[in-house]
Amino acid sequence: MATLAPPEERSPEERPPAPLPGESAAQQRAREFEATWDAPKGLLGIFTVIDNIPIANRYMVTSFAFFIVGGLLALLMRVQLARPENGFVDPHTYNQLFTMHGTTMIFLFVVPFIEAFANYLIPLLNGTRDLPFPRLTALSYWTYLFGGIFIYSSFLFGLAPDGGWFAYVPLNLKQFSPGLNMDFWDIGLSVAEVAAIGAAAEMIVGILRMRAPGMSLNRLPLFCWAMLVTSAMIIFAFTPLIVGTAMLELDRKELTRFFDARYGGDPLLWQHVFWVFGHPDVYIMFVPLVGVVSHVVQAFARRPVMSYSLMVLAIVATGFLSFGLWVHHMYTTGLSPMGMGFFAAASMAVAIPSAVNVFGWIATLWAGKPVWRTPLLFAIGGLVVFVIGGVTGVMVAATPFDWQAHDTYFVVAHLHYVLFGGTIFPIFAGLYYWIPKFSGKRLGERLGRWHFGLMFVGFNVTFLPMHWTGLQGMPRRVYTYPAGLGLEGLNLLSTVGGVVLTASIALFLVNLAQSLRHGEEAGDDPWGGDSLEWSESSPPENAQFARIPVVRSRHPMWDQATLLPVPDDDPDTTRAARLLDHAPSRWRGSLVVDVLDGRPIGLAHLPRKSGWPFVMSVGFTLVFAAALLDRAPVFFAGAAVTLAAIVGWFWPLDTERTAIDEAYVDEALADATRVDEQAHAHGDPTDARPAAHAPQDYRPGAHGLALVVGDRAANGYWGTGVLVVILLVALATLLASYFYLGDGPTPLPDGRHAPPLAPALWATGAAVLAAILTRVLTAACDRRRDGVRRLVLVALLALWAAFAWLVVRAYRAGEFAPAADAYDSSVLALLGYAALLGIAVAGMIVAALAWAWRAPRDPRGRGVALNTSLVSYATCAVWLLVLGAVHLWPRVA
């Protein structure tokens, strides 16, 4: 067990500040608390800060910069199409423009900006101090930034992606697209996708586990509900896309043949994989803005949103139904009438929950007394535009109409009405609503109204004529068109609208710059909002909630006289709120609650700063650069950097002293005693505040909360559960591809036999034995048997290493040739995935062993072991499914 050095031997960050003359213990504790939550400063602080607010600010600025660049690319396209047979840009450049425009808006702006919004707002809305994994927050940002730079660096080499933001094959296979253009897209996009999934995993755990006491699920703000559903959708939509882009890149390098029809592949497989992501992604962009609009509408209607329960159910239903629509992008590919009928019905059904949201907002405004300020103007303007897009969406959901409108500018118009109305207008509504909280300054109301008017008019002038150009037969993605088709006036009108739309964004930037410099002070609650973020200062303090609020209502700022504990509160709630009043003071801690009712169950330890997320992102980027350039030295350099970052991230003996140290426990208990004595001396025993402590086995004491860092209540355990879901979704994508490429009941090509079974059975024995030993490991962790834990981890390390080796042997025994056959490519994907999981589990076991040997009594080490156990079970399940698909099913089908 690590011990705390004497005060004179500690670093300046660890050393407690000396008491000031006449300062009480409570005042000193508050000063220590503020110093603990202060973000690192200076040049080094740029790379080591992991607090949610600085990272969210960077996220928003970076993604909005990509939005501006993507908009300028669209403006260049409109200039090219302003008149027929224009020579402003050549066909190849136009392909690059529309590819990068779509890629930027979908992958580099909307989803990252929404996640940045959530990074900032969710702790404020939930009444907590940070997200559960601050280092993951930083890792997601740096990975997203490097991924975006990676894609845009292609312009420097004249190799910008030019195969469409949808990357259809076979046109994007190596034989038809031989340059590195689409490799930049494929690999850079993978980096950005990893960032999105990491942020989504953190949102799920943060929303479910880190809330103010009393905030049950039926009191959760609607934006939090929307982000919870969105994050789950990201897990199930982005994971198949990562698998698909990996398959595409392997095909482009001619190592596999998933999509090459000459070798048994199928180009339509790519469309299925892509649109399983692509159509849910429309709702991934829309659903969070349902939450934003709901907050804006109820704040300016001066009443709670109508039918909270129906609004939540509609959000959940939208997320669920969105995964049944992808095939309506593929009506012209020769599908069966029955299949098209099913997906047409699903495409129309998704309009029902969206309509529930729309009518809920209308009813709220009707029943309230709306105040027409800029945020509400953008919300209602977006509502009008989105409804128009929804109507045309029902039209293209009908198969006969879609056959006529497919790949015309009618679809371009529909897409932009849905996305602009469902995302861009609400994003600006949210910016005008929450920038006063972010900055402490109001945005100018007059310029804001001009911004709205120009954007609304400019958008409709740009995209409304495209409905008619599409119906007149103008195909999308063409760089020019001949004169005399009646398209000249409509295209010129769309270009004029594009200029007006661009001017509206420029006006917003002017308003923002002017307001941040000379704007009116916003105060803490400029709009009279109902949720917890308006209880804090503008901008919020570093810790956001030095005093944890107690929630008794769905609208605490409207319904509660105080956010502090009152005698009627549950004793556990009162204890937790008093416990965390400017505490812990020398390390970062925040409350963990029960998922359903918001009952306090423990205290989470949060890291203070770390440069390892930045280092790990650099390693990721080097690995992906090596994949682009086919350079082994670059790959090994990236792998070495990534490995060093992992070691640093999980190193057991952290230099930052935590609540686990026994000396800190002693100090916390002594501090609690002093506060109790002072409170009783002044005749106010209700003000006695117990300290955060975890004596002996770190279970709850009579006057404290447990530190949830080493058991199944820990955030890390829940985060690992989300990781397991991601791994299983990836497996489902690979299995679906394997069977899709097959012909008949079995994927085996004619004349082929099932792979040899013996090596696979040896791997199965290793996996099953590892699963049994994993159960022994969890029992040892639960019973605090550290010696047994070490021995079992050593045995598991040997078993999973042997498993990976045996899976490789099983693959080699089959004499597969993935570069010459789609079936062999599928087998390589499945067996390779299982082997990689075995190696990953072995790596996690090494980390768990480091904790077990270097700090055996530290409960965080038990937490690492429990997390490893989840991945161990998942890897065994993955292998059993792979065994059944590759080795057993062909023998019995």
TrEMBL record:
Example of a GO biological process term: electron transport coupled proton transport
UniProt keyword terms in alphabetical order: Cell membrane, Copper, Electron transport, Heme, Iron, Membrane, Metal-binding, Respiratory chain, Translocase, Transmembrane, Transmembrane helix, Transport
Subcellular location: Cell membrane
Region described as Disordered: 1-26
InterPro entries: Cyt_c_oxase-like_su1_dom, Cyt_c_oxase-like_su1_sf, Cyt_C_Oxase_1, Cyt_c_Oxase_su1_BS, Cyt_c_oxidase_su1_bac, MFS_trans_sf
Listed transmembrane segments: 59-77, 97-122, 142-167, 187-208, 220-243, 282-301, 308-328, 340-364, 376-397, 417-435, 447-469, 489-510, 611-629, 635-653, 717-740, 760-778, 790-808, 828-852, 864-889
Keyword Amino-acid biosynthesis found: no
Protein name, entry field: cytochrome-c oxidase
Keyword match Cell membrane: yes
Record's compositionally biased regions (Basic and acidic residues): 7-16
Chief location category: membrane
Gene3D superfamilies the record matches: 1.10.287.70, Cytochrome c oxidase-like, subunit I domain
Recorded metabolic or biological pathway in which this protein acts: Energy metabolism; oxidative phosphorylation
EC number: 7.1.1.9
Domain of life of the source: Bacteria
Family affiliation: Belongs to the heme-copper respiratory oxidase family.
Pfam families in alphabetical order: COX1
Domain Cytochrome oxidase subunit I profile: 31-552
Annotated Gene Ontology cellular component terms: plasma membrane
Protein topology in the membrane: Multi-pass membrane protein
Catalytic reaction annotation: 4 Fe(II)-[cytochrome c] + O2 + 8 H(+)(in) = 4 Fe(III)-[cytochrome c] + 2 H2O + 4 H(+)(out)
Organism (species): Roseisolibacter agri
One MF term in the entry's GO annotations: metal ion binding
